Amino acid sequence: MKVQLEIGYMGDIDTKKMTFEIHATFRQWWMDERLVYNSSMGSKVVGLKSLRDLIWTPTLFFINEKDSKLVVSTRDNIYVQIDPDGNVYYALR
């Protein structure tokens, strides 16, 4: 499994409350042999939250996190790609 955190914005650090705010994109890559499929069906399967809800995804968390939420947007902030060899790319912000 590979994990990447890209910080797009970092707000002020409040040293008294010991808090700060970031806007980030969180990406994960892993291989799931159960998702291998015949590539004649297409080069990759791409979807949003509805596809994510159908597959296993790792549970990751930040220790000592105070609060977190997905960015509110008119578009879904979750992207999933499954390659024929079972490699999964999962991103959220």
Taken as a percent bin, the fraction of beta residues is: 35-45%
Number of helical regions: 1
Strand arrangement in the largest pleated sheet = 1-2-5-4-3
Residue-averaged pLDDT, rounded? 87
| Cα distance spanning the termini | 19 Å
* DSSP helix fraction: under 10%
Low-confidence stretches: none
Shape: elongated
Largest sheet properties: 5 strands, antiparallel
What is the string of helix and strand elements? Answer: EEEHEE
Number of extended strands? 5
Give Rg in angstroms. Answer: 16 Å
Structural class: mainly beta
What can you see in these coordinates?
- The chain is 4% helix and 35% strand.
- The protein is mainly beta and 93 residues long.
- A five-stranded antiparallel β-sheet has the order 1-2-5-4-3.
- It starts with a strand and ends with a strand.
